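Researcher: For the record, we're logging two predictions in this thread. I'll number them. Prediction 1 follows.
Model: Prediction 1, sequence and structure:
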Amino acid sequence: MQEFDELFEAAVVAFRQRMVLAVKVMSEARSAEAFCVAERELVGLARELAAHMTQRVVQTVSDDSERRAEALAHVRARAAERGIEICSIGDRQTPVRTLGGQVVEVRTPYAIGKPWASEPLETRGGQGTGVYPVLDLLGIVGRSTPALRLLVSRTVAEANSVTSARELLAAGGVSIDHKAALRLTYVVCEDALGARKQAMSALKAGVPGELSGRRVVATVDGGRVLVRRRVAGRPKKGGRKRFVTEWREPKVLTVYVVGDDGKRDRTVSPVIDGTLGDADEVFALLRYHLLRLGGHQAKDLALVGDGAPWIWARADELRAALDLPEERFHEVIDYFHVVERLGELAALQGWTDDERIEWVGSQKRALKTLPVEHVEAAVLALKFASDEAHARERDFWSRNRERLRLADALDACIPIGSGAVESSVRRVINLRMKGPSIAWTERHAEGVLHLRSYAKSARWSELERVILSNTGWHPTNRRPVSDRAA
């Protein structure tokens, strides 16, 4: 402790005169502008001091023989699990970007996996074959501290573009270029997705959580994102790689709690998450969140969605996975989607506007007050363009009859709208990931969707803990070219 006290005192002495001057300028300010400039100068000095202290601490830890041995043993153990032998090759100078945005230099041990430079090697993987053991132990990867990566990734995920994110970071004193902002964000995305995959595999049964004993509503819906994929061919003029694009439907889930009156309980933050995977994958994700938060012990659970068959084809499987009795599991088709369907049918009848509005209004009232059979009969009595169209409509109402008992749901104070997930789709996807000339790689879209979901559900601190637990070097190795040829 004495050693670090001396470090602190030495750092403060180096900045004391500059700080004294900054405080003097602030005290002599005679306008809002002058005071603003002085305050920013003072905070900038504090940030610089923090970076200086961070560099000294990391360097001290790197010079500590005990910590060096501990860190090397840690990476060797992880590498051994992959059948990789680690060799220390001495110290190297490397830059580290700190939370304040400053880049400091640290001389620290470096190690690589065998085989090392004895003969030509295959191209290394995304993690490379080398590691700075001490920095890795502290979570310093990608040449940045973990706190900086989390700050940058959250800002990039929440802002409506990387440019906006950089402007927000710069306003807070953190200057970072476009490529570095993206690189740090994608490092965090990979850690977050890796942690989620690992947690989903490890969770075999539900555990008590914040949803236990509560009335829970789960909703799922889809959005649209443009995804790009590299294709073979010579780069275009300017060096841009060739790619093709396609629209994909990321699926978003929202889980929230309601009180006995059916109104949302604002004391419990909603759960928002999503994936570019198929229907099975989003339901696996929904099952995971419900099990980890105690949804299997919910007082009752309502699954609310539109009429998409892919949702309701998996409802029974979800209930079985949660081991909920039928009387505590409710399936509800969104009221507003039904009303939209009624409006489309009424528009095909050749009625006047008043007749159409009157008919739709009467069916809306019936949906909320009468058994669904009343509305079903009124719909099937309409004129249809063909027998096939009539059969499709009849099939919809008969197949979803129990899910359309909205009057019963209202009596039980169960929400009948899926507005929560539609709002999530808008906030998570449409306002950030969808727009003119925006095309993502699939992996990056999945990662940003995951980060933004947690940010918009006020659960970012929860995600941070998960990310930090999965941060670090992931051992890879390269074979000699001669082995590959053999």
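Researcher: Logged. Prediction 2.
Model: Prediction 2, sequence and structure:
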Amino acid sequence: MIDVHPAPEAAHSVREFLIHIATIVIGIIIAIGLEQAVETIHHRHQGERIEDALRDEALTNRRLIRYDIDSVNAVRRNIRLNMTNLDRDGKAFVPVPPPHDTFLPFINTAWIAARNNGLITLLPNQVAASYWRVNFLADAMSGSITSLADARKKVNSLLYLHASPSQLTPEERTALLHAYSDEDQEIGNLNYILTGFDFMNEAALSGHIPSIAEVAAESQRAQQTEAQPPQP
């Protein structure tokens, strides 16, 4: 059996009509408010998940920084040793390979995913500003590693030009010395970026946005180690 409901009774006065309209409006407002509340809670949870992912990456990058700094120190000492030996007696030069020369790029997958999906706005402004700086230096690190690899190729192309480096002509030995110098400068630039990344990464983990004065002071400190390798 089909139930047939009577049509709603028409309002008999302006007052009843206004009450009916007001009921509908209030219902719509409540529905919209509930929807917005649910969306706000969802966005808050999304933002918290993104922030947690960024923090996890920053903690991983903290370990990568230590590894890369060890690589920088070992490679720079090795380059300077080879430059000294080559300059002292090029005819008897035998290159000493670096004991530790692998550089690992930093991880910024969470930032890239949030940026590409338009979710950066869900982060607090301070958090977004901190990790933007970290991500910028992560990109610079990748570019620096590529430049360093190109410099190393130039060194290797001269080292293996003959059966033995001792067979290099005076002009080729000079070119090799310049190639080592170029590689050393690339290492210095990489060290500069590493130092800056370490500073910004730690600031992000502590929830601190460095002032312009703090960034300038850190940049000056990093420049002091850019040109010269650390002492053994």
